[in-house]
Write a structure and sequence with these properties.
Chain lengths: ~110, ~110
């Protein structure tokens, strides 16, 4: 079945450093969604990318969808302690209604 | 946050007992999902529903059943709980269409001893 892997599994940065998580799918995706889960919380939708090569920005966060629509990345510039949490990518394949989530990257930010 | 309520929020039970988790939504969304979250596995889909009485299996459906008799309620049942089903369970909802985001409930922490 479809697999979506994320690397790294965990990253610890100092506040102000940049952070990037990478998402790789074993199959071509129709779209990619990104979610953030704070410790003890539930996943919260951040953004969706649909087009090949698409890039979207939300303040310090930059999201990219690969040309082949099999990978994606999330880059955070100048991390803050409020960025702490686990970031998940998730994608649909074909016309499927089911969303496959990546394994997640846990980000820890210290002062 | 979307109007999604999961109950109970925490439950401890013994192996072999039946367990039912409830997800209630006030958004009138068509799609409802049950996921389990375990360390190193992310979120894995158990079952989902695309309408009243319309359900389908996800990637980890063995040992679980679901029912949806009303738009607003989606029940997840573990017929005979096992320790491997200890997990955090999340319900999610979405409107019709792949391009719609999913909105999650606060989760149920289930421990099976």
């Amino acid at each position: 079945g479809q697999q979506v892997m994320q690397i790294p599994q965990y990253q610890h940065v100092q506040e102000g450093e940049d952070f990037t998580t990478y998402c790789n799918s074993s199959t071509t995706l129709s779209n990619i969604q990104w979610y953030k889960q704070r410790p003890g919380g539930h996943p919260v939708f951040l953004i969706q990318l649909v087009k090949s090569g698409e890039v979207k920005k939300q303040k310090r966060l930059t999201f990219q969808f690969g040309e082949a629509k099999k990978n994606s990345s999330l880059h955070i510039t100048a991390t803050q302690t409020t960025d702490v949490g686990t970031y998940f990518c998730a994608g649909h394949t074909g016309t499927a209604s089911k969303l496959t989530f990546g394994t997640g990257t846990r980000l820890q930010v210290t002062l | 946050d979307a109007g999604i309520t999961q109950s109970p929020r925490h439950k401890v039970t013994e192996t072999g007992t039946p367990v039912t988790l409830r997800c209630h939504q006030t958004e009138n969304h068509r799609y409802m999902y049950w996921y389990r979250q375990d360390p190193g596995h992310g979120l894995r889909l158990i079952h989902y529903s695309y309408g009243v009485k319309d359900t389908d299996k996800g990637e980890v459906s063995d040992g679980y059943s679901v029912s949806r008799s009303k738009t607003e309620d989606f029940l997840l049942t573990l017929e005979s709980a096992t320790s491997s089903q200890t997990s955090v369970y999340f319900c999610a909802i979405s409107e019709l269409g792949q391009l719609q985001p999913q909105h999650f409930g606060d989760g149920t922490r289930l421990s099976i001893l």
